[in-house]
Design goal:
This protein has about 350 residues and is mainly beta. Helix content is about 10%, strand content about 35%.
Length: about 350
Amino acid sequence: MVRVFQLLPWVLCGAILACGHSGDTDKRKAPEQEQGQPAEKEDGGNREAEKGRETLEPTFLEGQDPKPEDKKWVRVEGLSDEFEGSGLDPAKWNPSPEFIYKGQDRGWYGGSRSLFEADNVSVGDGFLRLEGEKFDSPKYSPKDNTDEAPQRRYGGAYVYGKTLSEPGYYIEARMRASKTAMSAAFWLKTETVPCEVNLNQGENLEIDIQECVGVFTGELGDEWTKDDWAVKANWDRIFHYNTHRHNSPCNTIGERQTKGGKMNFEKKNSEEFHVYAAYWHADGGKIDFYIDGRLEKSVVPVIPFKGALRLIMSSNFYDWIEETTAEEMGFNRPLEDRYTKFDWVRVWKLEDL
């Protein structure tokens, strides 16, 4: 009995030390666990912990991937970019709409009051940045009639892929609009070559994966837009997607033929990033539009979209936006607020396993 009491202090001491050691271990683990979490960034929110790493699959929520069991997704590297460098990759992208065909510039330089300029395109902090600005005085585009007064008062940007997108591709981008009246758009279009030699059998086709504005200035009854469609659609907090068949000298259809859809967000397009995507079916007969990995709607265009299209990221001043003050339209904001930002763009195709 005496020996038991003599040993008891040593047992209690060992237990106390063991408990103390266990507590220290837990305290050491906590910071390690915190360090392992993806960092919150001012731009882009909770981005990938290793944004530059190789991404093996497209963005899909569970049960949303249309991939057949005998296929796998493979990145189309010529149209995919994480924008991790210090400048735009000239092997993949053109920062200007200029497009010379047989000595003629067939580029489109923006809406009637807008001008796409290469110096509004930059890469920094892991983003492609498209700057919106209000000019001190109006400018001409390279194709404008200089005998008339210049009308282009707002600077935007237009970046297009040097590799054409094809039917069968899944095309996605993580994007956020600026805090200006400029648009934020991710889209595809028939190349601006004569219709008799284009890859769409003379058709002038367009797929809008997303188009919105950062600030909307119109009001119900506004005389500028002539109707209230844009106001009621809430263009500054919208997922707006379309397929367009435009009139061309080779089809003479008259008015544009459109099929698409829209949905609205609770927050504005300038307040948060979303992943906008489209799966362009291989036969051209259907385009599935996705938001943040979820199928929103399958659209059957008026004719099959069978030919290759140009992939475009742009920021424009739409013709139906009402001009108010620079302050109201966001052009007096700091440069960081005037950027439309693309976190990344990724394009995928299906191949056999």
